[in-house]
Specification:
Elements: E1 7-15, H1 21-29, E2 47-53, E3 56-62, H2 72-87, E4 90-96, H3 103-113, E5 121-126, H4 133-146, E6 151-154, H5 163-173, H6 191-206, E7 215-224, E8 230-238, H7 241-248, H8 253-270, E9 274-282, H9 290-295
Parallel strand pairs: 1-3, 1-4, 4-5, 5-6, 8-9
Antiparallel strand pairs: 2-3, 7-8
Helix pairs in contact: 6-8
The structure holds guanosine-5'-triphosphate.
Length: 304
């Protein structure tokens, strides 16, 4: 390929929590780089995935779900989301077909209007597999009255409907440019952080209610072994002493199951053997500690 034909740019995915941003990112990139669960607000970092299509390299910024921030951590997440949108070449606003124009979606549209950016915004009506086709046209009209979207796509990120058209369009939208990343790179997150995200996803799937939002996972040690395997040591930080027992489970069975599931996925992702060691520690104030934010790819905002 000659460099003169290439295109490259950033695409920001915005939308309410659970709109399907991570699912869409994974479908576009064709590999699992951002964690997807049924629970809201699982995405904390500005994870990027890279899709190659035609001669275009499309770099996705998977932002945290945009919602009304209360806690300090939440405010950092929201700031990261809008920061990603403002820097992008294209913004995709995801709306859930069965929920329509919710108050939360309207708040995002209001924020978009105040963004003072010429960045084109496309409307992505996602989860069309969950509604009858008759409702889609009316929903699309209503949303296009609320904001002057450049383009509307109706998709199912999960089933793949409409995703090829969206990818074609994005490939044509990003500006003429040399590629920004080496061809074989699918995520610019360091492996340590991906490994921590994998463990956090497994914890989120196993634990209930508030606890997943009150814990964080860090990869403390990463050792490359001579036989090609990796020895990975991670710490699960919980916010309250009472949570430690819950994460450990009876006789340590919860953390053991989490570790097994996480190890299997890390091995699939990296294509080699992994020895994973998990520890649970209480750190009551972790949500207010500046260094944790840097590790999650977020800015720490001082002052409450
Ligand atoms: N039926 C259906 N479900 C979908 C579709 N796309 C995503 N989902 C589901 O919706 C849920 C949320 O998807 P995510 O991709 O994690 O959503 P997100 O917007 O990244 O969420 P946050 O990280 O909380 O911001 C998951 O259970 C997905 O499986 C779709 O096209 N159809």
């Amino acid at each position: 390929m000659t460099e003169t034909n290439t295109r490259a740019g950033f695409v920001a995915l915005i939308g309410e929590p659970n709109a399907g941003k991570s699912t869409l990112l994974n479908r576009m990139v064709g590999a699992k780089v951002s964690i997807v669960t049924h629970k809201v607000q699982t995405t904390r970092a500005r994870i990027r995935g890279i899709a190659l299509h035609d001669d275009s390299q499309i770099v996705f910024v998977d932002t945290p779900g945009i919602f009304r921030p209360r806690r300090r951590l939440d405010r950092s997440m929201v700031a990261a989301a809008w920061g990603g949108a403002a820097d992008a070449d294209v913004i995709l606003l995801l709306i859930e077909a069965h929920r329509g124009l919710t108050d939360g979606a309207q708040a995002i549209i209001d924020q978009l209007k105040s963004l003072d950016t010429k960045t084109p915004v496309a409307l992505i009506i996602n989860k069309i597999d969950r509604v009858k086709s008759e409702v889609l046209l009316a929903l699309s009209q209503k949303l296009n009255e609320a904001y002057a979207f450049q383009q509307t796509f109706m998709i199912s990120a999960e089933k793949g409907y409409g995703c090829a058209d969206l990818l074609d369009w994005l490939a044509a939208q990003v500006p003429a440019s040399p590629w920004l990343y080496p061809e074989d790179q699918i995520a610019d997150l360091p492996m340590r952080m991906i490994a921590a995200e994998i463990t956090r996803e497994k914890l989120t799937l196993r634990l209930h209610e508030e606890i997943p939002y009150q814990l964080t996972v860090e990869t403390e040690q990463w050792e490359e072994k001579k036989d090609g395997s990796a020895r990975v040591e991670q710490v699960i930080y919980v916010a309250r002493p009472g949570h430690k027992g819950i994460v450990l489970g009876k006789g340590g069975e919860t953390v053991k199951a989490v570790g097994q599931a996480a190890r299997t996925e890390m091995e699939e992702f990296m294509g080699r053997r992994v020895h994973l060691f998990l520890q649970v520690r209480v750190r009551e104030n972790w949500q207010n500690e500046a260094e944790r934010y840097g590790e999650m790819g977020l800015d720490f905002r001082d002052g409450d």
